[in-house]
Write a structure and sequence with these properties.
single chain; mainly alpha
Length: 103
C-alpha cells in the first residue's frame, strides 16, 4: 500500500510543484487531454536518446501545465506575434511583477 495520494495536489497560485522525472510522474501531472498522447508516444519510443528526448519534452509540458491561464496567455502571444506586435523585455518584466503582486 502506498502513502501517495491518488491524484496530484492542485497547483497553487505562484507555486509550481515538483514533477517526478518518471513516466508515471509526468503522466500524473499532465492534463487529461494530453496524457493519452504522452503515453502513446512513450510506448513507441526507442530506448536511449529517443526516449530521453521525449521524456524531457513532456517533463517540461507537465511543469508548464501548472502555470495558471497558460493556454490563454499562449494564444494571446501567438495572436499578437502574427499581428506583428513586438514586446520589449521591459514589458515582459513588468508583466511578471504585476502578476506576482510585487509591483
Amino acid at each position: 500500500m502506498s502513502a501517495q495520494p491518488l491524484e496530484p495536489p492542485l497547483p497553487s497560485m505562484g507555486r509550481v510543484n515538483r514533477v517526478p522525472r518518471t513516466i508515471e510522474g509526468i503522466s500524473d501531472w499532465l492534463p487529461e487531454e494530453k496524457r493519452a498522447q504522452f503515453l502513446s508516444e512513450v510506448t513507441r519510443a526507442e530506448l536511449g536518446a529517443d526516449l530521453a528526448n521525449l521524456l524531457s519534452g513532456w517533463y517540461a509540458e507537465a511543469m508548464f501545465s501548472q502555470v495558471p491561464d497558460r493556454e490563454e496567455r499562449h494564444t494571446k502571444a501567438v495572436r499578437e506575434l502574427r499581428a506583428g506586435k513586438k514586446v520589449s523585455l521591459d514589458e515582459i518584466r513588468a508583466g511578471r511583477r504585476f502578476r506576482s503582486g510585487s509591483v
